[in-house]
Amino acid sequence: MRRLHLVVGAIALVVFLATGIYMDQVHAHLVGMADAPRLLYRSAHIYLLFAALVNLLLGAYLREAERGWRRWLQRAGSVALLATPFLFLAAFALEPGLSGLLRPWARPGIELSLAGVLAHVIAGAAGARVVHYSSSRTAAAGLDAARGAGTSAADAATPVTADERR
User: Fold this and answer.
1) Cα separation, 14 vs 49, whole angstroms
2) Which of 60, 78, 138, 146 is disulfide-compatible with 156, CB 3.0–4.6 A?
3) What distance in Å separates the CA atoms of residue 162 and residue 43, rounded to the nearest whole number?
4) Does an H or E element contain 160, and which?
5) Shortest CA distance to 41 belongs to which of 114, 98, 84?
6) Smallest Cα–Cα separation from 16: which of 38, 55, 47, 60?
7) Is 161 left (phi over 0), alpha (psi -120 to 50) or beta?
8) What would the pLDDT profile of 3-17 be if each residue is shown by its tens digit?
9) Rounded to an integer, what distance in angstroms lies between the CA atom of residue 51 and that of residue 135?
10) The model scores a pTM over 0.85
11) Positive or negative CA dihedral for 114, 117, 119, 122?
12) Half-sphere CA count of 145, side-chain side, radius 13 A
């Protein structure tokens, strides 16, 4: 999934740049355009950047769960986030031509972004292992090492999990 997020994110970033050039060259940077279409162009343009960056970040940092409900939740979140650049591109191309401020493509893209990010946060938080470094253990090891006892400073720097602290 990481590679797919990287590819989709990179393509979406290029599309973001292309939509910016389109607004500049074809629509004179939207100068003189009515408020509603200008708002729809600009917001969809920024949504494309958002979708590109989220996918690039997942492509760079995603650590997939090995199995279970966390892996399923990550995959569902990834599918949602991989779909968003396409919805935002459709929003850019089609919504400014609609009457009023209808958002039939951008709104589902925003909602899928929220769902996908929350799915990754929940899956990641459920699998996170909290590690604390005990300063009292470090200080005690330093004193023991100075006295020539068996605990070294390297032993003192070992992580202490939340369960061991209790």
Assistant:
1) 9
2) 138
3) 44
4) strand 160-161
5) 98
6) 47
7) beta
8) 999 999 999 999 999
9) 41
10) no
11) negative
12) 13
